[in-house]
Write a structure and sequence with these properties.
The complex is a heterotrimer of chains A (358), B (226) and C (264). With 358 residues, chain A is α+β, with helices and mostly antiparallel strands. Chain A folds into two domains: 218 residues, Rossmann fold; 119 residues, Beta Barrel (OB fold (Dihydrolipoamide Acetyltransferase, E2P)), CATH 2.40.50.100. Chain A contains eight helices and 21 strands. In chain A, the strands form four sheets. In chain A, strands 7-8-9-3-10-11 form a six-stranded mixed β-sheet, with helices on both faces. In chain A, helix 5 links the parallel strand 8 and strand 9. The longest helix of chain B has 34 residues. The radius of gyration of chain B is 20 Å and the shape is globular. Chain B has a single domain, classed as MetI-like fold (Orthogonal Bundle). In chain B, helix 1 packs across helix 9 and helix 6 runs antiparallel to helix 7. Chain C has 264 residues and is α/β, with parallel strands linked by helices. Chain C folds into two domains: 123 residues, Periplasmic binding protein-like II (D-Maltodextrin-Binding Protein, domain 2), CATH 3.40.190.10; 96 residues, Periplasmic binding protein-like II (D-Maltodextrin-Binding Protein, domain 2, 3-Layer(aba) Sandwich). Chain C is built from eleven helices and eleven strands. Chain C has a six-stranded mixed β-sheet with strand order 2-1-3-10-4-11. Classes of the chains: A alpha+beta (358), B mainly alpha (226), C alpha/beta (264).
Chain lengths: 358, 226, 264
Amino acid sequence: MPTILEFDLKKKLGTFQLDVQASLDGGLAGVFGRSGSGKTTLLNCLTGFLKPDAGRIVFNGTTVFSSADRVDISTQGRKFGMVFQEDLLFPHLTVKQNIFYGRRRRDNKKYVKEVIDLLALYKLVDRYPSRLSGGERQRVALARVLLYEPDVILMDEPVSSLDVSTRYQVLAYIKKTQRAFKVPMIYVSHSLSELLFLADNVLVLEDGRSTDFGPAAKVLLPRHEGAESGEEVENIYELPVLGIKAGNAALAFGPSQLMIGYGQRPIKPRVKVGIKARDIIVSTQAIDYISARNIIPARLEQAIEHKDHYLLSTVVGTYTCLVEITRAAYEDLQLDKAKEVYLIIKSRSIIVWEEVLS
Amino acid sequence: MNNEYMFPIILSLKCGFLSALLNLPWGIFWGWLLGRKEFPGKIFLQTLLYIPLVLPPVLTGYFLLVVLSPRSGLGKFLLDVFAVRFVLDWKGAVAAAAIVSGPFMILMVKQAIEQSDNRLEFVARNLGAGRWRTFWTVTLPLAWPGIVAGFFLAFARSIGEFGATIMLAGNIPEKTQTIPLAIYSHVYLGHEAAILPLIAAAVFLSYLGLGFSNMFMRTKKIGNHR
Amino acid sequence: MNPLVLSCFRSTALRVLVGVLLMGITGHVRPAAAQIAEELDVCAAASLTDAVTDIARVFKSRYGTAVRLNLAGSNTLRIQIEKGAPCDVFLSADEENVQQLVGQGLIDAQDTQAFLRNQLVVVVSAQAEGALHDLADLEHMAGYLSLADPQTVPAGIYAKQALQAAGLWPALQGRIAPALDVRAALAQVEQGVTPGGIVYATDAAAAKNVTIAFVIPADFQPDIVYVAGVLRSSPRRWTAQEFLGFLTSEQGRTVLKQNGFTPL
């Protein structure tokens, strides 16, 4: 994949010193850093809000900043799009007017339709932002940035202000969008699970320095088993171990329990697990006489309609669980009227990671 | 309708609307500058722009008289080139009203701009909009309620303008006599019978102007969902 | 009757007789324990501004009374008095306003006195370019003519009478800039707001930046008489009457003449 973003910069702000270099290919790159690590400063340098003391920034082959060559293209000149923590939609414009605001071409109707379809916005185009939910607003923000067709999309913790049940919905959309339109994206966050879910490669920032760079799972988890980087795992949890018997462990999962195959692993107090949305079966009744070990009552919060499937957002205790089912199944089960459902998960479908990260 | 009080009422309405209208570009420009930008000397500039608020209106009128009379350079220029005279002319009444109500417009616009989210302007620029487009499509619409509030406040203030008007435009019946001037003249020159309709008009128009202004000041920001 | 008692009676009677005669002549009775008041409220026509200030100063140095002046157009003063403004002496630029107060019982007819004459002049600002030589020139003058309000203020009414007498009122009627009193009219001319105005000769003398273009011809000069009156409601009537007396005394007349007036 071509190099989309290349930078090598130093910036001093008060007592804080930022000194980073990286070369990010296309796809979805992540920047991981806790608060104070310099990720906001890095973003501001990339966007042109701040001027680095020294260094170079290259967007898609164009040098937008170079202290050596005295190049410093203004914010407007750097063709990047940005998605913020707050959606920052224009409150006085409709969804349609918002997403068209940055549109430069008149002849990309097909692309426009694809974006609207992918982000499930067709029912919302004439509404005003005040009438949208948080997740819907971020989808509109994403569409707006996509229709601007920038070289790179920078995302600054776009889901942190959303409630938990909506977060992963939006993340799923972000991933789908990136895969479909192949726009290079850089996702900056302090959340491991978000980056694990989304990013191909991750740059780790600590105290203003880049300490690691590489595939997400490799960089964010010292070791991993069972999940390859790049595969989508929508549901990731850190759960306490209640007990181990005959190679199986019972994990506390809200008010219920999750049974996983544990094998010969050393005993740990907490485990990190992942379940793919399409590996979960939904039932409207409790079922006996079934081989799956996990039958978990859950509350159905939201269902997002896609072309050929539904993405359900369910809640177990304090956890959100995303489930993918076919459209036909949704209609047959009449899930639009359901409130309580049962999630059926095979132990073998649950991915277990070794280490627990704090 | 008796012409004795129709003229002042119509003239006051004219002055009110024209002065508020003239203050729109003036108020929007300074309100935007003071509301968005920081720069050295901002406080001094702001104080200067707000001075008509506290200066005795007769003094404001006197300054206007000195600046705009045909004796001064500016006054002579305006007279010769544009055939516009302010002294003892209804245009002087408009000028006086505009100057004293200017600060109200600036104040309202400044407040509206300060309250609007300036990150939205960044977003617009980020999406490729130039300065003008950003101003027209984002800044201005967001500040709109403040601008309208300012318009009506300026209108209301103009209705009540007396000191500057009598200094600059004089108190010529059927030419420059606005409602306040007419009321004052009638009382102090002995025609008390005529003032009731004038008082009613003055109170009504001021109330209306202030009322509309309040309406727009209390309007929530457009689409405010937080 | 005892002759001694009779002779006492006769002396008292004589005293009473003298007292009554004195009352008739001077018009007032000096209260047994009368003292000159410390303050006096005088409402005076605007055109008397400088003159009455001088008078007040001399009065104070002679009697010790502080005179408070309220200066405005005579009709404005009349309205204020009608509405209860505290006033001891009213100096009006015409008889009409005083008569109105007499008619309302606010002034005793006996307490009034005409004391001054004046005349009208046409003034222009000192920097004026065109020259006005006589009333006919007013017709060709560009711009407005400053007058005190010709409907209600004495100076304006007098000016209107003069213009009517000269047959110029219909032509100039639409070009009048009315002011609230004669001094305001004067100020308009002084500041160049209007090219010319009609004021009292005494006013022209008071302004620095104004010159007299010409005196209105005697044929058209109205009969300008200033009248003074003491208010019935005045708590200091005796002092007020003293003031009036001073106004018409030799010393008072001198001060008035110094200010350009013609005392009666």
